[in-house]
Amino acid sequence: MRGSRMNPGDRRTRSTMTIIIVMGLCCFFYILGAWQKSGTGRGDSIALRVNQETDCTILPNLHFETHHSISGANPLIMTSKVIEPCHIRYSDYTPCQDQNRAMAFPRENMTYRERHCPAENEKLHCLIPAPKGYVTPFPWPKSRDYVPYANAPYKSLTVEKAVQNWIQFEGDVFKFPGGGTMFPNGASAYIDELASVIPLADGTIRTALDTGCGVASFGAYLMDRNILTMSFAPRDSHEAQVQFALERGVPAVIGVLGTIKLPYPSRSFDMAHCSRCLIPWESNGGMYMMEVDRVLRPGGYWILSGPPINWNKYHQTWKKSKQDAEEDQHRIENIAEMLCWDKIYEKEDIAIWQKKASSHLCHQMNGHTSKMCKVQDADDVWYKKMESCITPTGEAAQLKKFPERLSAIPPRILDGHAPGVTEEDYEEDNKVWKKHANTYKRVNKLLGSSRYRNIMDMNAGLGSFAAALDSPKSWVMNVVPTISERNTLGIIYERGLIGIYHDWCEAFSTYPRTYDLIHGYRIFSLYQNKCNVEDILLEMDRILRPEGAVILRDSVDVLNKVRSTVSGMRWKSKLLDHEDGPHVPEKILISVKEYWVASEEENNS
């Protein structure tokens, strides 16, 4: 009993320690509770921690710089299923515009150049390799004028378009002098002429559509005037023209005016352009002009340069009789009048029409009501057949000039034409994505620089991520998935941004290695039970450049599954907590694709 008694001094020491521990715990839980309930400064404090730890703790083995050669790549650590490289013959593979598959479809109305995706049992389950010698594209604006030959080794356009100043081959690079079929003296001088008629300098014109874009020099030089151009051209005998555009750092997709509606909402573009695009505008009852009318904003402009404009001078060059060439232009004039477009300019090879700001009365007066489309939703266009009818457009939306337009509440929201989106929702969305973008920039300090020129947002919502990044150093392809509950792409265009509809169960309409950074907000939760996660990740890998980055936001369970797959895809990844702390179920997965190119061993295996 005596041995069990404590010395009075020991008892006092133990009591003192107990009091200190209890007081310490009380202080800790008081501070923790105050922090959790305050709601202020939480994101900033977490972001500060991320910023402090990024360089040495959180992302110790992720490198965002480029290296231009395989010697700069890190050793691959495989922890799950290893996905093997495809054969080098697939280095420029475009699954839904595959040349061999296209030949099985009719040529009438360019059907064979439309999207024809592989069946499930035809999909590749391998990594698309970069060609040997692949290097990081030049930074903007140098990339506008030069593209490394190794990245797109196709010389046919240098011969076919030699006299038109499209593209030249010099040493180990392609040079783009800025010329085009209808502007051999350069796109800049051509745009100057357009600017004498169209207000290109004051922010009125922000979004443009270039049909049959070639190597997209028109869109490239419009960027000098703060105008974003969605350029498209088919994958055809003009090898890799869209790939050249994207290598130059210019927005472009593979596409064609055929039988399916364009993947853009109605009233999207401030200006549409065709420079010898060889689209038969006068055919099919004016169906192609009607489709341009659908996506052209009231008050917008349509520019046509090349056939049949100036037919009197060129009809023999076009191998057409004078009468036939004149009749072609006459039919276009009649269709434009039916669409309530006013011709405001014609000089030599260029003609410009302006769509009336309000065409409803015009259509009634001209007796065109029978030609109006009966569709319920003019923005429901994915794989929908084009029609020879006029889309009702209503009154012209009162858009502010850019850049005010970027943050102003879009007319679709103000007018109640965006179900489920209120003005308050819009304002809050902007705040949230500014906060998220700041976090990304703290984690990857190169975001916002010319390191990431071509950016894709796979689930763009209201376009607030792109708005938060807005910079002349980069552009964002805002994708609105076709299965989204809310169709928000029209809002994105009203903000002065560009984007496209797409279903991520299929391949995107682009060449491999065309994006520097891919962002996806809850994209895998959206497609859960819709299609295979691995298929979506392989498509992301196909379109992502070597040493490109991926930022995904989703629930921790979803991201852990994604992380397990990408560890076998030559990606390095790290999972980060949400800005508001570790108890938020939403997490951030940051990944970097390693640099690698096709090797002889892989091709022979």
UniProtKB/TrEMBL annotation:
<keyword id="KW-0812">Transmembrane</keyword>
<keyword id="KW-0472">Membrane</keyword>
<keyword id="KW-0808">Transferase</keyword>
<comment type="similarity">
    <text>Belongs to the methyltransferase superfamily.</text>
</comment>
<protein>
    <recommendedName>
        <fullName>Methyltransferase</fullName>
        <ecNumber>2.1.1.-</ecNumber>
    </recommendedName>
</protein>
<dbReference type="GO" id="GO:0008168">
    <property type="term" value="F:methyltransferase activity"/>
</dbReference>
<dbReference type="GO" id="GO:0032259">
    <property type="term" value="P:methylation"/>
</dbReference>
<keyword id="KW-0489">Methyltransferase</keyword>
<keyword id="KW-0735">Signal-anchor</keyword>
<dbReference type="InterPro" id="IPR029063">
    <property type="entry name" value="SAM-dependent_MTases_sf"/>
</dbReference>
<keyword id="KW-0333">Golgi apparatus</keyword>
<dbReference type="Pfam" id="PF03141">
    <property type="entry name" value="Methyltransf_29"/>
</dbReference>
<keyword id="KW-0325">Glycoprotein</keyword>
<dbReference type="InterPro" id="IPR004159">
    <property type="entry name" value="Put_SAM_MeTrfase"/>
</dbReference>
<feature type="transmembrane region" description="Helical">
    <location>
        <begin position="16"/>
        <end position="35"/>
    </location>
</feature>
<keyword id="KW-1133">Transmembrane helix</keyword>
<dbReference type="GO" id="GO:0000139">
    <property type="term" value="C:Golgi membrane"/>
</dbReference>
